[in-house]
Design brief:
By secondary structure, the protein is an all-alpha fold. The protein has one domain: Heme oxygenase-like (Heme Oxygenase, Chain A, Up-down Bundle), CATH 1.20.910. The protein is built from 10 helices and no strands. Helix 3 packs parallel to helix 6 and helix 7 crosses helix 8. It is globular and about 50 Å long. The structure holds ligand VIB. The site of ligand VIB has 15 residues, from helix 3, helix 4, helix 7, helix 9 and helix 10. Pathway: Cofactor biosynthesis; thiamine diphosphate biosynthesis.
């Protein structure tokens, strides 16, 4: 029997967590443009090294793909992450006088390391569907946030220093990449047992909570205490 649109179930059940993400002071600060610049710089550096690890997970997607169509698409989103998304970070860094070397040399905080290590563990031991469940909240909730901020604060965007950030994450380029991941999870879960679906949903929920912790970490500039 076909189990269609597993992504709907994921989306419905994750709403309480994503709501918290959308109301987070860091996210609201991006929208209003009042976010403290030092907090944004902290985020920029942490996110850059996060994306280096995240991009490698798309490479593991290439490895785990069982057909050329999926393999090709993982390679394309890997390319987009390195050349489109990370370019946004490089541009903001240049504005703030931060070099590429500084960005790359950033030591990940405990939360950053925990988040990427969790995804790497699933990538090493789990199925392709489990890996996609870990990758999906990052892409999907950022797209939701991008669209939300654009529709809520669209009129003041011209003077918002974080305009480029909002434009990037609400863009069609991101929308298309995210939609592909959503369609992929639907395709990969068609024949899965309820037990497997439960595991997949747990990864989706946990990485969504890590998204919250990541906002919180940047808001409070939480780093190693020693
Ligand atoms: C902590 C954190 N979570 C999510 C994203 C956003 N993001 C990461 S990969 C990707 C899609 C690539 O196709 C998107 C939108 C981020 N930058 N940092």
């Amino acid at each position: 029997m076909l189990k269609q649109n597993f992504s709907n179930r994921l989306y419905q059940n994750v709403q309480p967590i994503w709501e918290k993400n959308h109301q987070h002071p860091f996210v609201v600060g991006l929208g209003t443009g009042t976010l403290d610049r030092e907090k944004f710089i902290f985020y920029l550096k942490q996110d850059y090294v996060y994306l280096i690890d995240y991009a490698k997970l798309f490479a593991i997607g290439v490895e785990k793909a069982n057909n050329l169509k999926i393999m090709t698409k993982f390679a394309a989103v890997l390319h987009e992450t390195l050349h489109f998304e990370m370019e946004l970070h490089r541009q903001y860094a240049a504005e703030f006088g931060i070099t590429r070397a500084d960005l790359e040399a950033t030591e990940p905080t405990p939360i950053n390391l925990a988040y990427t290590s969790y995804m790497r563990k699933v990538a090493a031991n789990g199925s392709l569907a489990e890996l996609v469940a870990c990758l999906l909240p990052c892409a999907w909730d950022y797209w939701e946030i991008g669209k939300l901020l654009k529709s809520t604060y669209g009129e003041t965007l011209a003077t918002n220093p974080y305009k480029k950030w909002i434009e990037t994450y609400s863009s069609e380029t991101f929308g298309a990449g995210t939609q592909w991941l959503i369609d992929l999870i639907d395709e990969l879960t068609i024949e899965k047992s309820e037990e497997e679906l439960h595991t997949i949903e747990q990864h989706f929920q946990i990485t969504s909570k890590y998204e919250y912790l990541f906002w919180e970490m940047n808001e409070k500039k939480q780093d190693w205490p020693i």
